[in-house]
Specification:
Radius of gyration: 17 Å
Strand order of the largest sheet: 3-2-1-4-5-6-7
CATH architecture of the largest domain: 3-Layer(aba) Sandwich
Number of helices: 6
CATH class of the largest domain: Alpha Beta
Largest sheet: 7 strands, mixed
Number of domains: 2
Distance between the termini: 35 Å
């Protein structure tokens, strides 16, 4: 059974989706051992506590990035987590953090990487007038939103869309592909070779999510 640490800063909807996937048995070989936030009022911490999970607030005020990350890494290691899942964690990780869990950190980004990295990806997509956007689960490296891609799903962008409407449809997609990525990870179906992810899709019914119509 793989131990998972979740980092979040807000509502934690992707965390809840992963938690529900574990409860339902969809993710069979993973358990969340700790949920950490840099925000004391993060809803995700409340959800963690309500579900009997270890919920830890670590205050980042007055600390530089690496100093703070060293505290977070210490907590994660205390719970012996095998993988770290970023679920709406609004901090850029230091090199120290990434190196501490090399090839063991997953993140979800609301765009089809490598397009529209960084903040406000949906706004960037609307601004460029693209016809398709989506979501990407990827491993985290020291370069922002630039790690090996695990799974992506496409969401159409309609002429009537604004940032809010597109964000809502992409979030639906995120809630499908993040549990899938965690399932693949905890079933040892993912290998990284020369910066590229190779997935064993054998008997994974969720392969249908690559359909461009998902979420829209």
């Amino acid at each position: 059974m793989y131990k998972l640490a979740v980092l979040l800063s807000g509502r934690g909807s992707n965390f809840e989706t992963i938690l529900n996937a574990i409860k339902s048995g969809y993710i069979k070989n993973g358990e969340i051992v700790v949920v950490i936030s840099n925000k004391s009022d993060a809803r995700g911490l409340s959800v963690a506590r309500e579900n009997g999970l270890n919920a830890v607030f670590i205050d980042s005020k007055g600390k530089d990035r690496e100093e703070y990350d060293r505290e977070v890494v210490e907590v994660i290691k205390r719970y012996a987590a095998d993988y770290v899942l970023l679920a709406g964690y609004m901090r850029i990780l230091s090199s120290y953090f990434v190196r501490s869990f090399k090839d063991r950190i997953l993140n979800i980004h609301p765009a089809l990487l490598p397009s529209f990295k960084g903040l406000n990806a949906q706004r960037q997509a609307i601004g460029k007038g693209v016809r398709f956007s989506g979501a990407t689960v990827h491993f985290v490296t020291e370069n922002l939103d630039d790690g090996p891609i695990v799974v992506q799903a496409v969401v159409p962008v309609y002429s009537s869309d604004d940032e809010e409407s597109l964000s809502k449809r992409i979030l639906i997609t995120e809630h499908k592909i993040y549990p899938l990525a965690v399932k693949l990870l905890t079933e040892d179906r993912i290998k990284i070779d020369k910066g590229k992810v190779f997935v064993d899709w054998d008997e994974i019914e969720d392969f249908y999510i690559m359909n461009p119509k998902i979420g829209g």
